[in-house]
C-alpha cells in the first residue's frame, strides 16, 4: 500500500477515541496499514506529541476490539502519531500544518499522499476544504483524499450547496463520504451473497418475494445529543442515509467481479427507480412517531419531551416507518417496509425477506402457516437464517417451519470503521456514499421533510420499550402483512 499521511481534524473528539484510533490500531495489528504511515492529529487544544500519544493509547485500551496490552506493539504504533494545534478558520495554522507534513514526509522519505479525515461538525466542512486548497496542503505531487462524516447536508438544497463547495477543492473520486452502515460486515456481504449463491440468485426479485422489511431498532434515546438530534430527527439521522443505503445494497444488481463504478452506477439506478412521493402521499406511506415514557428491559425511562434540553413542545420525530416501491423489472410490486426508531424494545438491525408461497398455498389447508423467510441480521449480531416449511414427519398432511441459522462470532468480525478506513487508504470507494445517491436520497426524502414541516402528517406518540406506534403495524396490515419478530 502507498505511503500515507493521515491528517485527522477533530483528533481530541469522541469519534476519534472510540472508533478511529481503535480502527487504525486493528488495521496495524493485522498488517493492513501502509509500511510508511504517519498520523497528524489536529485540535483546538494545545497538546504535546507525548500527551497525544498517551491519549491514543488510552483510547485503545478502552475501545479496541483487539487487546492493547503489549507495550512494544503499542509503542511502535503510537510512534507514528504527531499533534498540531489548529483553529479551522485560521489560515496560519494550515501553513504550519503544511510545514509539519512536509518535514515528516522528507524525514520518512514518504510520497506526499495525504488523506484528510474530517471528524468535526458539519459547519466546518466547507471552511476546512477551502483552507486545505488555499494553503497548498492539497497540491503536492501525490494523491489527496477527503474522508467526511455525516451529516451530508440538512435537506436537498444544503446537500447540493455543500457538494458544490467541496468540489472546488476535491473531485468526486477524491471524496469518501462515510456511512458507517456500509462498513458493517453483513452489509458488505449482501452483494457477494446474492451474486455468488445460485439459490439466492434464483430467488432475488419480484417473482419470489412478497415483501421486504428493513428494521433498525435502537434502545437508546436521545442521549446527550439533544442539540444535534432535536434539529434532525429519525428521518435525517437514520433514514435518509443508513436505511436508504441498506435498501440500495439489497436491491442493486451487479455483474460478476463488479467494480466500485458498477456499484455506484447501480445504486443510482435503484434510486432513480424509487417511486417518488409527493407531499400528499406522505400521509399514507409514512408513519412519524415520538417516544413517550415507558420501561425498557426493566428500567423506566422518560419521554422524549422530558429529556434534558428538549423543549416540552418539541415535534421532533424519533421514529419513522415507510412503505417504498421500486419501479423496475426486478422489484416492481414488492413493497419495501422500512422503519427505525429510538427507545424501542430491543437493539436490532435486520432485513427480513418474506417469500410468496405458491407450493404451500396449493397443498395446505393450514391458514396459519408460517411463510418462508430469509433474515439478514446486521447488528448487534451478525447472521443469516432461513425459515422454510417442510412436511411434518408426525403429521404428514401438515407443514411445519424449520430454521437454519448461521452466526458469525463477534470477536472475529472487523468493525465498520476498520473496513471503511482500510478502503479509504486503498482508494476504494465501493462502500462509501457517492454524490449521485446522496443527492437522490435527499430528493426522495424532501417531500417528507416538507410534509413534516407543514404538519401534514400526525406525530404519533409511542410508549418507550415497544415497537413504535400502532400506525406502523397498520401500514403493513393494509397490505395483508405484519412486521416479523416483534414479540
Ligand atoms: C448514527 C446515528 O449514525 O447511527 C445515531 O447518528 C444512531 O443516532 C447510530 O444511534 C446507530 O448506529 P449503530 O451502528 O449502533 O446501529
UniProtKB/TrEMBL annotation:
Amino-acid positions noted as binding NADP(+) in the UniProt annotation, renumbered to this chain: 10-17, 44, 87-88, 150
InterPro entries: G6P_DH (IPR001282), G6P_DH_C (IPR022675), G6P_DH_NAD-bd (IPR022674), NAD(P)-bd_dom_sf (IPR036291)
Keywords, alphabetical: Carbohydrate metabolism, Glucose metabolism, NADP, Oxidoreductase
Protein name: Glucose-6-phosphate 1-dehydrogenase
Family: Belongs to the glucose-6-phosphate dehydrogenase family.
Ranges where the Glucose-6-phosphate dehydrogenase NAD-binding domain occurs: 7-188
Main EC class the enzyme belongs to: oxidoreductase
Native source organism of the sequence: Paenibacillus mendelii
Keyword Oxidoreductase belongs to the record: yes
Enzyme active site: 242
Function statement: Catalyzes the oxidation of glucose 6-phosphate to 6-phosphogluconolactone.
Residues noted as binding substrate in the record, renumbered to the chain: 180, 184, 218, 237, 342, 347
Stored PANTHER family: GLUCOSE-6-PHOSPHATE 1-DEHYDROGENASE (PTHR23429:SF0), GLUCOSE-6-PHOSPHATE 1-DEHYDROGENASE G6PD (PTHR23429)
Pathway assignment: Carbohydrate degradation; pentose phosphate pathway; D-ribulose 5-phosphate from D-glucose 6-phosphate (oxidative stage): step 1/3
GO molecular function (one): glucose-6-phosphate dehydrogenase activity
Superkingdom to which the source organism belongs: Bacteria
Domain Glucose-6-phosphate dehydrogenase C-terminal, first and last residues per copy: 193-484
Catalytic activity: D-glucose 6-phosphate + NADP(+) = 6-phospho-D-glucono-1,5-lactone + NADPH + H(+)
UniProt KW Cell cycle keyword: no
Gene that specifies this protein: zwf
EC number in record: 1.1.1.49
Amino acid at each position: 500500500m502507498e505511503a500515507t499521511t493521515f491528517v485527522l481534524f477533530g483528533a481530541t473528539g469522541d469519534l476519534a477515541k472510540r472508533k478511529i484510533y481503535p480502527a487504525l490500531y486493528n488495521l496495524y495489528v493485522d498488517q493492513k496499514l501502509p509500511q510508511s504511515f504517519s498520523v497528524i492529529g489536529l485540535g483546538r487544544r494545545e497538546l504535546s506529541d507525548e500527551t497525544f500519544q498517551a491519549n491514543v493509547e488510552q483510547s485503545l485500551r478502552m475501545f479496541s476490539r483487539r487487546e492493547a496490552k503489549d507495550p512494544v506493539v503499542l509503542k511502535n504504533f503510537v510512534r507514528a502519531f504527531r499533534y498540531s494545534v489548529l483553529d479551522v478558520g485560521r489560515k496560519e495554522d494550515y501553513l504550519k500544518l503544511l510545514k509539519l507534513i512536509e518535514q515528516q514526509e522528507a524525514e520518512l522519505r514518504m510520497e506526499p499522499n495525504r488523506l484528510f479525515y474530517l471528524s468535526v461538525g458539519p459547519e466546518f466542512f466547507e471552511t476546512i476544504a477551502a483552507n486545505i486548497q488555499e494553503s497548498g496542503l492539497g497540491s503536492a505531487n501525490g494523491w489527496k483524499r477527503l474522508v467526511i462524516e455525516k451529516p451530508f447536508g440538512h435537506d436537498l438544497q444544503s446537500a447540493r450547496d455543500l457538494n458544490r463547495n467541496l468540489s472546488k477543492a476535491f473531485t468526486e473520486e477524491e471524496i469518501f463520504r462515510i456511512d458507517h452502515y456500509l462498513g458493517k460486515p453483513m452489509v458488505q456481504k449482501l452483494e457477494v451473497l446474492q451474486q455468488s449463491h445460485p439459490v439466492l440468485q434464483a430467488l432475488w426479485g419480484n417473482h419470489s418475494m412478497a415483501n421486504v422489511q428493513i428494521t433498525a431498532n435502537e434502545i437508546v434515546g436521545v442521549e446527550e445529543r439533544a442539540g444535534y438530534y432535536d434539529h434532525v430527527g429519525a428521518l435525517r439521522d437514520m433514514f435518509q442515509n443508513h436505511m436508504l443505503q441498506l435498501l440500495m445494497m439489497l436491491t442493486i444488481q451487479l455483474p460478476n467481479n463488479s467494480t466500485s463504478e458498477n456499484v455506484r452506477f447501480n445504486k443510482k439506478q435503484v434510486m432513480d427507480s424509487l417511486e417518488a412521493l409527493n407531499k400528499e402521499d406522505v400521509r399514507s406511506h409514512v408513519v412519524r412517531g415520538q417516544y413517550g415514557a415507558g420501561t425498557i428491559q426493566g428500567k423506566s425511562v422518560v419521554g422524549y419531551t422530558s429529556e434534558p434540553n428538549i423543549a416540552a413542545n418539541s415535534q421532533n420525530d424519533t421514529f419513522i416507518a415507510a412503505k417504498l416501491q421500486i419501479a423496475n423489472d426486478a422489484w416492481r410490486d414488492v413493497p419495501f417496509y422500512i422503519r427505525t426508531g429510538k427507545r424501542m424494545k430491543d437493539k436490532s438491525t435486520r432485513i427480513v425477506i418474506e417469500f410468496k408461497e405458491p407450493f404451500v398455498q396449493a397443498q395446505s389447508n393450514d391458514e396459519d402457516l408460517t411463510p418462508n423467510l430469509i433474515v439478514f441480521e446486521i447488528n448487534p449480531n451478525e447472521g443469516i437464517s432461513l425459515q422454510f416449511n417442510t412436511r411434518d414427519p408426525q403429521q404428514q398432511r401438515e407443514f411445519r417451519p424449520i430454521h437454519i441459522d448461521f452466526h458469525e462470532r463477534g470477536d472475529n468480525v472487523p468493525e465498520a470503521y476498520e473496513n471503511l478506513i482500510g478502503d479509504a487508504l486503498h482508494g476504494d470507494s465501493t462502500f462509501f456514499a457517492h454524490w449521485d445517491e446522496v443527492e437522490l436520497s435527499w430528493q426522495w426524502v424532501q417531500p417528507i421533510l416538507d410534509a413534516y414541516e407543514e404538519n401534514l402528517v400526525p406525530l404519533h406518540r409511542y410508549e418507550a420499550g415497544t415497537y413504535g406506534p400502532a400506525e406502523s403495524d397498520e401500514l403493513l396490515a393494509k397490505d395483508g402483512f405484519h412486521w416479523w419478530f416483534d414479540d
